[in-house]
Each structure stands twice: as structure tokens, then as C-alpha cells.
């Protein structure tokens, strides 16, 4: 039995532990949908999968609370499938294995799935606990939030009955989000006729060990992007050693800062030693540049079987120049909130072989005009390389409402329970609230949650001592929801 089942509150931890046993990487929701429906049947609440693939649960009001405003508790069922390089974990079949270290819950060399499994577990606990007092409650557990917010985007209008939405997908206890950034997926691609490899040998260059992280919440921390740092080496090696590009694989999720990139390069035999020296020099340079931020950088060369084909010379030069030039990281902070990122991009995935290039970027902004500006800037860069760029999955930001009734209630209860004032903020992460508000504009919305660190990485962790106050706050808030 997992040791986290012994933690308090029991309803939250037991359900989270059960959830870790159900594979649920983004794009593979069938098992977790069935699990949630089975859970609802066992605890005696209404539940169904809607046309968008979301699971909706409904629990009637406690007797005497029927006149309270309806509350929608919302979280997402999928998790980001990231693992350490030496892990053999299969996210489509294997359960998450957890352990406790120094007051935090971790997984064994994979993402933990507390983002947003803790939110889902809280909804399950509320649905299950018969001792609670509350008005009518709906649980909205959306599908595929992490790779396109498909569940929120396809949420049917008229399906939900509530007046208040509590999004349980924030990751800093003591901070409530009342606004978030919008985002857009950018994909640039190019197909071409491969060129015969006339070089003498080939090597694979690997750059790994960066911390990675959430491309919204942690983009301002200056963490290394493996794709951006690899292109510095590749361009230099092309210019000085005449190497040729055969392949590039870097990153695997749009919303995760890439911690690893690999390239296959073809070159003359007498240039291999010089390339190895160049890679070592770049490694030392990166250690200096990222001192105090990154501590496990590895940069090395291995000889591999010579590939039959290469990226054509002109295409190679244009693509590498575009990758070098394209924006990555923070573009601008919010002028009236100078400590909050307004606009950023993440050079997330590069997939190149001898006859095609595919590059995926996620751009975010709290302003629609700046989101459009950055997306167009990125497209313009790849246009110069002759690449085709497509935009998809665009969603608007969530405009804050500092006068929100539910916000003021949460602030009061938080102060009563902790003796401290809560921090109200706008997140650079993309939350589903803005999309849901587009379909249910009457909703009064706040996002909250316990403390999670390094989501979207294999060091994702959950701070145990924030679980109980989070649970107590949600329970007490449901009890004190105002009448209609």
C-alpha cells in the first residue's frame, strides 16, 4: 500500500493515490474516463461523459441548502507524460509510483500528475463525503487540457447549471488566480528532397540535464531550453567545421521547456576531434552562463552509423538560421504588474530528418494583440526559411475581476483559517477558465490549489502540508456559498 494513503485529509489522498494507478497521459483518456464513471457509481452520484469527452458529476444540495448558488468544481483529468532519461516508464500502461521525501510527494523519475490529479482527487472527495454541507455541486473534469484544452474548447453550451466556478488547477497555496494568459500553438514545417550523404562519418551530439519545466509558470526563471542551446553549437560547427545535418530530435511537449536535444551530424573524419573539443567548450560555456540555475548539464559526442541521406545544404542553412533567430522565452512583462510575465514563447519541439522539418512552439500572452504580434513574429522568422506555418488551438486570456463575490468569500475564509491575507494574482499559465467563461459568461470564477513545484518535469512534487488547508478551505467555502 502506498504511504501517501496514510496522509490527511484521507478523502483527498486516498483518491489521489487511486488516480495514480490509472494511466492518463494527454491524448489517452479512455481509462481515466472509465475510472471516474465507476467511482461516481460507487459513491452514488450522477455522472456522464459529455460530447467533448469531459466527465461531469452532479451532487444534489444538502437538505436545507437547496437555495444556495450552484458551484462547479473544475479540474483536468490528463497529465503531462515526462520522465527522466533513464526511466523505462510507459505512461499508457504503467501506474505512477510515488514516494515521500522531506515533506514532498514525488514520483519515481516521472511526472507525478498532481497537475491536475490533486484537483480531480478533491472533486472526488467532495462527491464522496456525505458529512459535508453544501448547495448543488457539479464536478467538471476536462479532457486533454495539457495538449490543447480540447475538453474546455469543446464543452457543450447549456450543459452546466452552476453560478460559481472554482478551478482547482493553481499550484501556489496562499495565492488565488483571477486571471491568466491566452495561448496559441504554432507549427512550422517544410518537406524537401533529401540529399545523398557524401561525408565520411557521423556522430550524435546530445545535450541534456536541463531542468525543463512549465513553459508558463517557470518561463521567467531563465532555465535552459535544450533546443535553443543546441542550435548555437550546430550553427558554429557548420560554419567552422563544415558539418552537415542529418537529424534533430528535441523536446516532446509544447507546454514543457525542453530539457534534452539530440542531433546527428555528418562530417569528415579529421573534423571529429575538433567537434568534440567544440562541444566540450560549449558545455563549459553553458555551465558558466547558467550558473545557479542549471547544475546537471551534459553535452557529449558519440559516433553512430553513417546515415544514407542529409538535409539539403540550402535548406539546412535556412532552417538552422531560423531556429537560431526565432524568439524563445519572455518577451514582455505586464506594465502595471511588472513582476508578472505578459508575453512569452517556448521553442518546444524540433523534429528534423533528411526530408522534412517540423517545429512546434507555444506562445502565450495576457493580451490578444501581443499574442498576435508574437505569433506573427515567429511566423515571419520561419517564412524567411521558406517554411509553412500554421496556427491552432488559440484561446483568449482570462480578464481579472477583483470585485468577485466568490473571491471575497475565499479571502475571508482563508484569513479566518490561517490568520494571513491571501495573495491575489494573474497567472502566465494557461487556465481553462477563460474558455469556459466564453461559453458561460455569467460565472464567478477563481482558481486555487495547494503547492506543486516543477510540473511538466520528472521532478514534479507536491507539498504535503498544503493539502489539508486547501481541503478545509474548499469545504468551508462550499458551506458558506451565498443564496441565489
Automatic annotation (TrEMBL):
GO terms for molecular function: metal ion binding; metallodipeptidase activity. Residues 206-291 form the Peptidase M20 dimerisation domain. One of its GO terms (cellular component) is cytosol. Pfam families: M20_dimer, Peptidase_M20. Belongs to the peptidase M20C family. It comes from the Bacteria. Residues 265-296 form a coiled coil. The keyword Phosphoprotein does not apply. This is Cytosol non-specific dipeptidase. It comes from Prevotella disiens FB035-09AN. NCBIfam families: aa-his-dipept.
